[in-house]
Write a structure and sequence with these properties.
By secondary structure, this protein is mainly beta. Helices cover 4% and strands 33% of the residues. It has a five-stranded mixed beta sheet with strand order 2-11-8-4-6, with no helix packed on it. A three-stranded antiparallel beta sheet has the order 1-3-7, with no helix packed on it. Strands 5-10-9 form a three-stranded antiparallel beta sheet, with no helix packed on it. Residues 1-22 form the signal peptide.
Length: 199
């Protein structure tokens, strides 16, 4: 069973003390849920950052399979780390949960079905020496998988400064991620599948 404690935290946030504002907001393609929901805490709800949305019934955007799309993410809270763009065909997201612990600080953080991984927007003020410009959205060209059907395209902020090293040297990643996702319906236009789907 995958951990769902971030979902509970997100749902409880409006009843708690003032929460942090949204860290990221997927601008394009259109996300399942706005990044500011629950004062930004919805984005902690793995795997899609959309605790109010049923991925199975959510509307999708029709895109050509294997095409290159523009992905744009506003990053409001700067942290040294990465933006990871990945996908899953499982609309419930059971195979898209991030890893919450790694063996050591030197262990790479694994991700599944990665389409793009790049340095997140950052600045010297938060200890970054490299990264995308901090004064504009993160933008990238992303090549979609050449498959047909529905997928969830996941944008994930990975915050390296939120890693917690345990006494045994393992690393707790439970506070490292913010998530957002868009549902895409991939078609091959050369097969005559050009109709819009659930727009």
């Amino acid at each position: 069973m995958k951990p769902h404690y971030f979902l509970a935290a997100a749902m409880a946030a409006p009843l708690a003390a003032p929460a942090a504002s949204a860290h990221i907001d997927l601008i394009s393609p259109t996300p399942l849920q706005d990044g500011h929901a629950y004062d930004g805490n919805a984005l902690k709800a793995a795997p899609f950052g959309a605790p109010d949305v049923d991925g199975m019934t959510a509307p999708s955007h029709t895109v050509e399979a294997g095409s290159v799309i523009d992905v744009e993410v506003n990053v409001y809270k700067l942290h040294p780390g990465e933006i990871v763009i990945s996908y899953t065909r499982d609309l419930t997201g059971e195979d898209a949960y991030p890893v919450y612990e790694i063996a050591s600080i030197k262990t790479p953080i694994p991700h599944t079905n990665v389409l793009l991984q790049a340095a997140a927007p950052c600045s010297n003020s938060v200890g970054c020496t490299t990264g995308a410009p901090a004064d504009e959205p993160f933008r990238a060209k992303v090549k979609l998988p050449d498959i047909e059907g529905d997928i969830m395209l996941i944008a994930r902020q990975v915050m390296r400064d939120k890693m917690i090293v345990n006494d045994d040297g393992s690393v707790d990643l439970s506070e490292v991620y913010y998530h957002q996702a868009a549902k895409l319906h991939l078609v091959r236009t050369d097969a005559g599948q050009q109709s819009q789907h659930s727009e």
